[in-house]
Amino acid sequence: MTPDGGPPRILTSRVDLAGSYTLKAFLETGGYEGLRKALSMKPDEVAQEVDEASLLGRGGAGFPAGRKWSMLRPADTTYLVVNGDESEPCTFKDHLLLETDPHQLVEGVAIAAYAIGVEQAFIFIRGEMALGLERVTQAVNEAYEYGALGRGILGSGFNLDVVVHPGAGAYICGEETGLLESLEGKRGFPRIKPPYFPAAIGLYGEPTVVNNVETLSNMSWIVRNGGAAFAALGKGRSTGTRLFALSGRVKRPGVYEVEMAKTTFRDLIYGQEFGGGISGGKELKAFIPGGASAPWFGADQVDMPLDQDEVGAAGTMLGSGSVVVMDETVCTVKVAWRITRFFWRESCGQCTPCREGGGWLEKILWRIENGAGREEDVDMLADICDNISPGLHWPPEQTTICPLGPSIPSPIASVMRMFEDEIRLHVKEGACPLA
Amino acid sequence: MPDDMASATETVSFTLNGRAVVAVKGEKIIEAAERNGVFIPRFCYHPRMRPVGVCRMCLVEVSGPRGATLQPACYVDVAEGMEVSTASAKASKAQEGILEFLLVNHPLDCPVCDKGGECPLQDQAYSYGPGESRFVDEKRHWAKPIPLNEFVLLDRERCIQCSRCTRFAAEVAGEATIDFISRGDSIEVGRFAREMPSPYFSGNIVQICPVGALTAGPFRFVSRPWDAEQVETTCTVCALGCRMVVQSQSGEISRVLGVDSDPVNHGWLCDKGRFGFDVIYSEERIVEPMVRKSGTAAGGTDGDLVASTWSEAMSLTVDRIAEAVAGKGPEAVAFIGGARLANEDQYAWGRLAREVIGTTSVDVQIGDGLDPRLIFSLNRATVDEACTSKCLLSLGGDVRELLPVLFLRLREAIVTGRTKLVELSEIPTSLSRYAETAKACTTEALSGVLEEVAVAVEAIVGNKSGEGLTILAGRSSLAASPFYTEKALAEAAMRWPQAKFLPLLPRGNVMGALELGLAPGLLPGRRMDGRNPGVAPGKATGQILERAARGEIAVVVLLGSDPAGDFPDEGLAMKGLAAAGFVVAVDAFENASTAFADVFLPVALAEERDGTVTNIEGRVASTPAKVVAPAMCWPEWAIASRLATELQGQAWTAGAARAAAPSGATGAAGRVGAPRGDGPGSAGFGYVSRTEILAEIAAAVPGWDELATVAGRVRAGRDGVVLHSFGAAGESGARPLDPIAFPGIDSIEKQGASMDAGGAADAGGAADAGGVAGAAGEQDTSTPGTPSLPSLPGEVLVPGSPAAKAILEAFVGVPQPDTRAEDRFPMRLSSPRVLFGAGQGVAMSKHLAGVGQEASVVVNGEGVNEAFGLEGVEARVSSPGGSVELPVRIDPRIPPGVAMIPFNAGTAASILIATGEPVTYVSVEPVSVDAAALTDGMERDDG
């Protein structure tokens, strides 16, 4: 607990420090103590702590990290890959960690690698994050010099090499199998399933664990404080703290670390230490609870706790930890168009529904938003969405290889479900009523 | 993907559209459904490539433990108890949705698209798509078409990104020269700036493209599929015998498509076989008989070839042959070539030569082959056997250049881990990069190196008997005498009695000719000729030319052959042809040798005449005619038949003697056809139809006897039968017919011509010439490496037989002459055959214009650069036999000390090679004093 009685800052304890990204600042604030402790334990015991922490993956799917590790197929060569390809609109939590506390990530990578017996790790970072890339690369170099990476880490018999790999500007490489393809030097085409998990067949065909930046940034704290302490925070499966990237029509957009399940969306949006309320004092119209592909919540669900399972049961997800707030003046058609435009342009082009459907939907939404919508476009939108993600239910069914497909209709389905009148008004008036 | 359920070991039961059916374990839903009569729409799926599941067209509803979901049928294995619904409301809506998506950016230009009418997108849009489009926005626009290489054009707007072409390039051809660039609906197939799909297999991507995105230049705007008539036939460009259909419109060939023959070509064709058909329409083609008339002197002869009549050309030929035999004996008449001919033609010409004229001077191989007696003494492998053997041992040069589609089959077998390759080759080949072991090895060193790699080979197959070993038997360079290779092959066969051999003899129907009597010392059906041949098999052409040069040959008949342009020793060929008293060209084009011709007899080409051909496996398949030959062009058998008929009138002929004999065993007697003007049809020899000859072959030739009863199996639409192995690997099952993979080919059985051999079952045996008293000359052993073979009269060469063993032993005993480079000629010449050479097959084709290789001398950069300064400089390459000037290319893969000149890219190599020498050594020097002065000058400047 922090001195003020609030939850501990597990991930963001250093973000406000000057030079937080340097080895010096890191060592002065307990850096690599977690790794030292982990190396004094057996790998199994480390994994056990993480399992006990009930750490849910922070990348978007929320798969328990401990379980993911346990699925790693025993083999002579195994890999750990860090997914730092955070590229979705309004998602910028890993961005913060990469730039302000790269050593925390490196330490987490070393702990995880030790726990699962991996001697080669890759950190794949979105190419556009130039500063993050620079700082993580610097941190890796410093860690080698310090002895936290390389041969015989911190005097132990454990070896680990880490390669920092910049992405080349494709959102799809955040999909873990697309990322692996890209790492292998190929086009970032997500792999068809089966094999279902990289833990069985991953990078270069070898068993591979792929973890998110934030997930691994928790490792040091968990090892130092014990999995039980982590699990004591939050509720149910949703333990510990989590970063939320809050954006949209709030007074104080930014990245906030909050205790899971104990905090509600209302706290996050309106709390003075967080969003501070809707900007301009307007009314909350709707919000996206977990990234661009998550179904939206209306103002009536603002008291929902930030609990993975509760949000899941309500038909959406905490996803990538991105909360986007829309007030009464926001045109939801425009929001849907903007998100669709993103997905259309980021489709890898492999599967027909995603490649062709995205562009088609974008064109229709643009027409509607700009006054050229037709009566029949509304039903057609719904039907096209259904052809990409049959039934438009949650969790989505998909006609594509990877989840980018059903991500496209997701915001559109939210608008259809919550604001169908608004779409029809666009068509009827031949213009955006909120413009 | 076994078709035959009986052969499947494990099966799974599942429900298909409510019906309980059985699938083979590991089978994909799309395949199991198809075998059970349910077609699932598809675009990216191709039965000869790994599934990728990207087009999503084959989505079906699958009920499993996790409820009913949409799954790609091309990718998901059938599982026990699985419930598959291909046409449920959910599956149908998904399929309709996919089609609508595919059409969003697809231009609806079907009326002007070459694919229209045979387009899987068009067809499946009708069957599974929505009635009309809801898309009202602007489609994607791109510049088009973009050339991908000499043959293929890309229309990016029509592309549906199924990745069949990119996968073919990477997975099948092994050269990822095209791939996707960009993403989303801006994704496009692109090629590298300087590296384009090579003109070897690129036509296949056009054929497997499920839309009109990839079109072939030669077929663009030529014909509508519904106007095309087609027939399934066998490609005769090389000796693999790929199955294909030939399409024509208004009596003119418009296109060639590959057919998926499981044992042979898997649907693939090489670009030469696919696009080279237009040679038959070349303006250079000779379409009427010609006779040399005195007048202006030209080409060392006493006049020009001028148009004539069959009567004049025939009677002149007959007179000259009769004079020759009367004056100098039957061996004064020689026949060179015949690989282009169909089996029936070859048999007829063989009888003419052997029985009617009585000569043994016959050779289909033009100094580029192997002794047929050796070939027939080796266990023969089928292509399938080669691809499933544990080890491939290659002594045969670059398969991609010789038998291109065999390269695809072998490459697939190697990269999928089914077999391992050990390669001994003079220079690296296209398969070297896939080899377990690839050794650079001169032909003369083969025998010794074979000894070295034997342990490795035996380790791979896991035995010492050679079981599971297939040896690729060919010649990796024509600048070394064949006896080195022959000895090595015989040694391998003795060492590994269970090993099988696949001969890499590339010429069209060379195997048929060897089987049916256009080989010296062998009667049809691999029977040893009792007579002592005046020539040595495999080297007979050289000996014929030598004898001709000495004035001993009065008549040379060129059966579609060009020794002056194609025989390894150009000088000898020119001398021989010039000195021959009378040269008859039986051909379709003029060439270097026809300059010596006194008579030119024009022939019908493969697409213009019915026949059968025999491939390297010994597989007999049909080549039915598709179009009509120009009026004056005869099928070759008819020419032979007519010549025989006229010659048999002469008292001296062997045929006449036999016809008079009471036994009548020749089958020639009594069959009298009335001569019809200038056309074929004759008394005596008596053939009036091609099927009659086939029936005679089936009735009279050992090993071919079952052909009569299985003739139906050889008919068009099937894969043919393998000789000497009926009942074993003979017939293959029905091929999977995927209208998407093979658009337009769905009525082969209906349209295919039949090979009706049964109708003439009364034909008597005619090939028995074993008892004919021939020239009893000494066997020629003067040529180095010619083994002293036992004569074994009448013995049939069956692998494993005492006769075959005696042959092998004789080859092992061949003395190996010493070869050493002289100071004057320090480099060893290597001269492999290339696919796109300077032959008529390329030169006469407008489609293939520009792909023919320019002659050059290729050397390893080491040391040579100093001499030349720069690549591309002209060099003088000299040997004891001659001298040529060629541009130099540097290729570090060529072993140091070797100068490589493609054999058939012009006559440079054959000018240098002297067939009397076992190995050709050359010198490579800057061509002019200027070049040397330039180098000196630079040095001076530097100083």
Q: Could you characterize the architecture of this molecule?
A:
The complex is a heterodimer of chains A (435) and B (943). Chain A is globular and about 70 Å long. Chain A contains 18 helices and 11 strands. In chain A, the strands form 3 sheets. A 5-stranded mixed sheet of chain A has the order 8-7-11-9-10, with no helix packed on it. With 435 residues, chain A is α/β, with parallel strands linked by helices. In chain A, strand 5 (234-235) and strand 6 (238-239) form a beta hairpin. A 7-stranded mixed sheet of chain B has the order 15-14-27-26-25-16-17, with helices on both faces. A 6-stranded mixed barrel of chain B has the order 31-35-32-34-33-36. In chain B, strands 2-1-5-3-4 form a 5-stranded mixed sheet, with helices on both faces. In chain B, helix 8 (343-357) packs parallel to helix 19. Chain B is globular and about 90 Å long. In chain B, a hairpin with a 2-residue loop joins strand 12 and strand 13. Chain B contains 28 helices and 36 strands. Classes of the chains: A alpha/beta (435), B alpha/beta (943). Chain A binds chain B through residues 170, 172, 187, 192, 344-353, 355-360, 363-364, 367, 380, 384, 386-388, 390, 397, 399-401, and chain B through 52-57, 59, 69-70, 72, 75, 90, 93-94, 96-98, 100-102, 104-105, 134-135, 137-138, 140, 160-161, 179-180, 182-187.
Labels describing this entry:
heterodimer, A: 435 residues, alpha/beta, Rossmann fold, Ubiquitin-like (UB roll), de novo design (two linked rop proteins), four-stranded parallel β-sheet, 18 helices, 42% helix, B: 943 residues, Alpha-Beta Plaits, 5 domains, seven-stranded mixed β-sheet, six-stranded mixed barrel, 28 helices, 27% helix, 18% strand, disordered C terminus
Q: What structural class do the secondary elements of chain B suggest?
A: alpha/beta
pLDDT < 50 runs, ≥5 residues of chain A? none
* CATH C-level class of the largest domain in chain A: Alpha Beta
Greatest interface and its residue counts?
A-B, 33 and 37 residues
The description of the largest β-sheet of chain B is: 7 strands, mixed
